[in-house]
Every structure is written in structure tokens, then in C-alpha cells.
Amino acid sequence: MSTNGINTPLKLQFGLINYENRYLTAEAFGFTVNASATGLKKKQTWTLEQNQENQVVFLRSHLGRYLATDKDGKISCEKEVPDPDCRFLIVPQSDGRWALQSEPHLRYFGGSAEYLSCFAQTIGEVEQWTVHLALHPQASMLSVPRKRYAHLSIADDKLCTGRDIPWGVDSLITLVYLEGKYCLKTCDNRFLRNDGKLVIENEPDTCFTLELKSGKLAFKDSEGKYITPMGPTGTMKSGRCSTPWKDELFDLEESHPQVVFQGANKKYVSIRQGVSVSANQNDETDMETFQMEIDKDTKKCMFRTNGGNYWTLVSHCGIQATVTEAEENTMFDIEWLGRRVALRASNGKYVCTKKNGHLAAVSDSVGEDEMFVLKLINRPILVLRGENGFVCHHKTSNTLDANRSVYDIFSLLFNDGAYQIKSGKGTFWYVSSSGLVCTDGDKPEDFIFEFLVYGRVGIKAQNGKYLRGDQGGTLIANGINVDNFSLWEH
Fold first, then answer.
1. Can you give the CATH number for the domain in which 428 is found?
2. Which of 130, 142, 119, 121 is nearest to 217 (CA)?
3. Phi, psi (rounded to 5 degrees) for 172
4. Given this model, what pLDDT does residue 53 score?
5. Rounded to 5 degrees, what angle do the CA atoms 13, 389, 96 make?
6. Residue 307 within a domain
7. What is the pLDDT of residue 2?
8. Does residue 43 sit in helix, strand or coil?
9. How many whole angstroms separate alpha carbon 49 and alpha carbon 124?
10. Gap between the Cα atoms of 235 and 196, Å rounded
11. Nearest to 435 by CA among 462, 471, 472
């Protein structure tokens, strides 16, 4: 997928659901496949690799092996390098489902349970698969022909594709999966309708069938027309086309956390005055917003401005936003100190707020001047996915599951360096005496968010423990240290 350079393109990962509502599953034992699972987890996740020139696709399992079929229709998934038997074509159906055709053998893939084959000469109900995206549903959305990002335009009260870069809270798009179709939700919890209006309630005209063309996504409405940017502002609405051409194609890109900092002087850190990074502003604008990019290997953090420059340590120990490429002096360690954070620069010194508001990495220890309030601004609505699945309300109790293939959407409220989490019913998360995370609180309870590794956040409760999914799949605050089960995609 293409990118304007500010964010990382997302790999297209998904689950495939057969006519019996079961997911295609890749097993480690014998590298076999079946269609028996009822939910979308790691073993049911497939990555699409596509040859852009001739539309051939390869399906790679979570084990890094490729789906294949021989001339007799026998299915396998053990090849580490794709060969001709791994070549498939996607044949989209009118309702958005896929038929998968073996390119060398011209037969169609289908079946149920352990009985899967690729030998059908025609497409029947058995050979049709529903696509369930497996990526985190919150992303930036890029119009392919316009090379502009979707955002909620306050002036027009529309979802428009007019941003050069996806910046701020209004550039966050949440994909909501409902019975095989997708809705597009804006940051203020409204749904895009096919006529371009934003509405509070979900309805048939807010549900779109997801289609794939040349590795890009298209959204087809209930009348068979496709969402397209229209007019000078790029207002997103259904056009006249009943076939997706270039104007109807979109990319999804990773949405990094974007934050504002408040120094010890109660002023917001800003670049409004030029290249120097200083805590000297009273309000939050794009000039006070910085994108956090955590290095996958070192776990150090970089802060990018909306102009594409990184904070960097300069020779007199000041902090300026002058560098366009990542390097040693753009890397900062974040120390999480409850409701406050401290930043250590590449010279080993802590960043402090000087009396004139300028930031400088000159301190050997952390005191009041070295502490900052960090506020996440582009996640007003929250979807969490952990090692075993999404966080979702338990069906019969006030607790939360952490192993679901569907997700619930929660509201995130900032409170002096901490966050309060509200459910759709207007009640709040809290931790019970036994450590269970409950959702029916009348009063808000504070949680600390720690952005510890690339694409993941640790969430610490008031009992000092991290939220994690236990063996039974329940969300509980009992993690002493951060591990794979207490880190959450957000």
C-alpha cells in the first residue's frame, strides 16, 4: 500500500469465513488447514501478498506458510516460498464475498471443517468466503488518486479527503465490522452514510461491502455504488460508479499516537515560535501536537512535528525540530512516572523546562522541572486488541473479555496525566477488589497509559498492576511486569 511518508502502510490481514460461518484456520501440526473455528484469532489470520501486474494473490498463514493446491484439488499450507500451486485469483461476488480460483488449475476453493478442496469447476455457495479484516480497526485513510487523507471537516460537517498528512483527532477513522460489512466511524462517534451525511445511528445506508482491487480497498453501498471523494473538498459519498475505478480506491495506514506535552510551567510545548521546541503556549493546536514514533528495536521514542521534522538534540543541549530523518540525536527515552513522564536525550541528560520555556537536556536527575504531562489527543474512542483478541463486554456480566474476534468501542477521557474509560452505556471502567476490570462504575477511575513499545500500550490500574488477559480470557489488573499479555494495540 502506498504512503505519503508520514505513516506506515498496513499489511492487509484478514480472516476468511465459509458458508457455515467458520473461519479458515492454519494449524501448526502438519501445516494442515480446516474451516472449523468460530472466531478470528492468530491461527485464523491470513496475510495477502499480491502481484500488482496480473492480480495474482498469495495467502500466507500466521506460520509464514503459503496456501496451495495441486491439480487434484488437494489443499496444503506448508510451503515457505510460494510456487505456481500457491497462485490464486480473487473473483469478487455481488454481495462482497470472494471466490478463490487457482490460477494454474482454474478450479475454485471451498468446503467445510476438515473437508477443504480446490476442485470445483463453478462457483457455488460452498466456494464463497466472507472477508473479515484482522488489522486494528483504527487507521488513517488515504484516497489513492487524490493522495489526501480523510478527516472530519468541522466547517463542512462532512468526512472529507483534504489533508496532506493525517494530523490530529479528526483524522482518525474507525472501521466497525457488522455481519460481514463495514461502517466508517468518525472521531465524534458518527457513521458515514452513503449520501455523505454523518449520522449517530447505524442503518443499512451506513454499511458497506469491502472490496479489494490491486491491493487497495473500495467500499460498496447497499445500492451497488462506491464511496468516492467528490468536489473540491473531497467529500466522501457514494458516486455513480458500479465498478471501482481509481477514484474509488483507498489505502489504510497506521495511526501513530499523537500527543501534547505540558511543562512544569503549565505551558504547552510548541514549535509555533520557530525551530526551537519550547513550553510557551496556552492552547493546543497542530503546532503543539507531536507524533510519537517508537523504534521497534531500541524502544526509544521520536517526536515528529506536523511539518515532518523530528525533535533533535543540538550542540548547546537545546531541543530543536530541524531534522527530517531518524538519527541518534532524535531518540529519547521515556520514563513513566505515574501521571507524569520524563524524557532522557541521547546525551544521557534529562530534558528540563528552563525559565524562558526553552527545553534543554542538561539535568542529571528528575525533579519538578524535568516532569511533563503527556496527553494522547487522537484516541477519543478506544479499541483494544491484545495477544488473544479484542476487548469486548462479557455477554452476561459486568466484566470484559480480552479474547474476542469482535470489539467494543469505548470513550477515552483525559484527567491530569491519567485516563478514564467509559463504556457505551455511559458507565465507567473500574477495578474490583479481586482485580477484575468492571464496566458498570458510576464514578470514573483513573488508569495510566504507558506507550512502551511500537504500536502497543501498557495500561496500569490504581492498584499498580497492568491490565492483562488471563487464561480464561477475562481482563484483569494483575500484571506485575509488562509482557505480551499486558500490551495492547490501540
1. 2.80.10.50
2. 142
3. -85, 125
4. 62
5. 40
6. yes
7. 34
8. helix
9. 25
10. 7
11. 462
Cell of 221: 453501498
> Looking at the structure, do residues 78 and 20 belong to the same domain, yes or no?
yes
Q: Supply φ then ψ for residue 95, to 5 degrees.
A: -95, 10
Who contacts 88 (Cβ-Cβ below 8 Å, separation ≥6)?
A: 56, 57, 58, 59, 67, 100, 101, 102, 103, 109
Say if CB 275 and CB 157 are below 8 A apart. no
Q: From 360, 376, 392, give the residue that closes a domain.
A: 376
What is the mean predicted confidence (pLDDT) over 164-188? Answer: 90
Q: How many CB atoms lie within 10 A of CB 170?
A: 20
Q: Name the helix (H) or strand (E) containing 163.
A: strand 158-163
84 three-class SS: helix
Residue 242 sits in the same domain as residue 277: no
Same domain, 210 and 187: yes
CB atoms within 10 A of CB 24: 28
DSSP state of 225: -
Q: Last residue of some domain: 254, 286, 315?
A: 254
Give pLDDT tens digits for 100-144: 999 999 999 999 999 999 999 999 999 999 988 887 889 899 999
Number of domains in the chain: 4
Cα within 13 Å of Cα(63), Cβ side: 19
Which letter does DSSP use for residue 199 in this model? E
Cα 462 from Cα 231, distance rounded (Å): 50
The amino acid that residue 409 corresponds to is I
* C-alpha cell of residue 36: 472449523
Three cell numbers, residue 309? 521534522
**DSSP character at residue 247:** G
Q: Which structural domain, as residue segments, surrounds residue 66?
A: 13-133
- What is the full DSSP assignment across 1-28? ----SSSPBPP-EEEEE-TTS-EEEE-S
Name the grid cell of 101: 480460483
Chain CA centroid to CA 178, Å: 17
Q: Are 219 and 227 in contact (CB under 8 A)?
A: yes
Residue 3 C-alpha from the chain's centroid: 15
